[in-house]
Design brief:
Layout (H helix, E strand, L loop, with lengths): L2 H10 L13 E2 L5 E2 L7 E7 L10 H10 L3 E2 L8 E6 H9 L3 E7 L14 E2 L3 E2 L1 H14 L4 E8 L1 H4 L6 E7 L17 E5 L7 H17 L4 H9 L1 E5 L4 H7 L56 H13 L19 E6 L4 E3 L12 H15 L2 E3 L13 H9 L3 E5 L17 H18 L9
Parallel strand pairs: 11-12, 11-13, 13-16, 14-15
Antiparallel strand pairs: 1-2, 3-5, 3-6, 4-5, 7-8, 9-10, 10-12, 14-16
Helix pairs in contact: 6-12, 10-12
């Protein structure tokens, strides 16, 4: 579904945000109404200017300008203006600068006061980093014929001797001799699903958790799952940023909006850390953000131990079939696929994300993304389409640009309703799972021969 067709559908359904006078009642996602939050509480806002009206071509420039100025610019269509996560104090500052800033909705969805969280969960059911680690170990112990658990790196805090975590990956397949080795000599193609690189994007880690359980619980009874596990190594990195997840989950009812890792950089609050999805060694860009901004790329390319571990691991298991030149194609002998989960904006993103120029394997890359879109209904985009910004230094670009493996991002969740935003109600996981499971299966199936046309 194209972004334009979705806009037509939204207009037809009357789902546009109602614009009202500044200071009056303001519209929340899902058409509920609430007062503007306090000056310090984070919330969602839409920003327009006299020259960059909602949905207009100049809105892209406004998004880039806000991003350069350190505002937390979010993914999604510009139909209501440039979406940002900010405090009311930030909104007032922008208004004084001549911009129109409208409250779009709250950061948090209320957790029922009677809800009793299970061990190692928070915010209605999402799993902590420790909860994921316990799950990884229990699955590997219960299914030794199907699962191998590996440590592929360390978090920043662990490298400093200050607690922290291992970065873990599971290999899920019907294990035969040579499977799940950390080398490229295995006979089975690989599909890797990675989640919660941005710690505040709660739904992504939970989808990885569900994907692990779905595979091991359906082997031998579900034909499609059994065939896939017999022929493919299905790797899962459930939590790519475990230190960040610790920060997020430190408040069980109002999670901390920590995007980056926990690298101490002299910044306070959620300004601390490095954006791991700008830190890869492919098209790393020093200009992506200052130290305290949400897109700070780090002091240098691949400066972070999480990035080093993930890149080292992926380089070990995937064959390199692409020349170094950006616009030289990977060969038709390429095997493997890669997916990183983010939220939110209902997008299927394929390479490249650092430029709007088409990648050399564009036809085949887009074919797989289109197949994903047929299942989840999300828009299929590349470059800055649907994102409001380019993403140099991202992992999906790194694996394609460096190794030739087709790398994808799914931005999970809508832009409105209680299922939108970084902190959707846990009950939304059912719809997220039902929509995206077929996309995961299609990427796993495509791993055997992702570039059939070579174009």
């Amino acid at each position: 579904m194209t972004r334009f067709s979705r806009l037509q559908r939204l207009i037809a359904a009357g789902a546009g945000v109602l614009l009202v006078l500044l200071g009056a009642g303001l519209t929340m996602p899902g058409s509920a109404t609430a007062a503007v939050p306090s000056t310090t509480e984070l919330a969602y806002y839409d920003v327009t200017s006299p020259t960059a009206t909602a949905g207009g071509p100049a809105a892209d420039g406004l998004a880039a300008d806000l991003n350069r100025r350190g505002y937390d610019v979010l993914e999604g269509p510009l139909t209501n203006g440039v979406p940002i996560l900010a405090s009311e104090a930030d909104a007032q500052r922008l208004r004084r600068g001549g911009l129109t800033v409208r409250y779009a909705g709250p950061l948090y969805q209320p957790v029922d006061p009677s809800f009793v969280a299970a061990s190692d969960t928070y915010y209605g059911g999402y799993h902590t980093a420790a909860g994921h680690e316990a799950h990884n170990q229990s699955v590997a112990t219960a299914h030794p014929d199907l699962v191998v658990l590996r440590t592929i790196g360390s978090s920043w805090l662990k490298t400093q001797g200050s607690g922290g975590h291992d970065v873990q990956a599971l290999c899920i397949t019907k294990i035969a001799t040579g499977d799940c080795a950390l080398n490229t000599s295995g006979s089975k193609p690989k599909f890797t699903l990675m989640a919660q690189m941005h710690a505040r994007e709660l739904s992504t880690g939970e989808l990885a958790y569900k994907w692990i359980d779905y595979l091991v619980n359906n082997y031998g009874t579900n034909t499609a799952v059994t065939n896939l596990m017999n022929t493919t190594e299905l790797w899962v990195i459930p939590i790519a940023n475990p230190d960040g997840v610790d920060i997020v989950s430190s408040n069980s009812t109002s999670p901390v909006s920590q995007r980056k890792n926990a690298h101490t950089n002299g910044c306070s609050g959620t300004g601390k850390g490095v954006d791991l999805n700008r830190n890869s060694s492919y098209h790393w860009d020093v200009n992506q953000g200052t130290k305290c901004s949400e897109t700070y790329p780090g002091a240098s390319a691949a400066s972070e131990p999480e990035t080093q571990g993930i890149q080292g691991f992926l380089s070990q298991i995937y064959r390199d079939t692409k020349p170094a030149a950006d616009f030289t194609a990977a060969t038709t002998a390429t095997t493997g696929t890669f997916l990183t989960l983010h939220s939110y904006a209902e997008l299927n993103i394929y390479p490249y994300g650092w430029t709007n120029s088409l990648a050399p394997n564009n036809t085949d890359l887009k074919t797989i993304a289109t197949a994903m879109g047929k299942s989840n209904g999300y828009d299929v985009v590349h470059g800055d389409g649907g994102l409001n910004y380019f993403a140099p230094g991202a992992t999906d670009d790194w694996i394609y640009g460096t190794l030739g493996v087709p790398g994808y991002t799914i931005e999970v969740g809508p832009n409105g309703s209680s299922c939108s935003g970084f902190f959707p109600k846990y009950s939304c996981m059912t719809s997220f799972w039902n929509l995206n499971l077929p996309a995961f299966m299609s990427l796993g199936t495509a791993a055997a021969r992702p570039y059939p046309t070579g174009s």
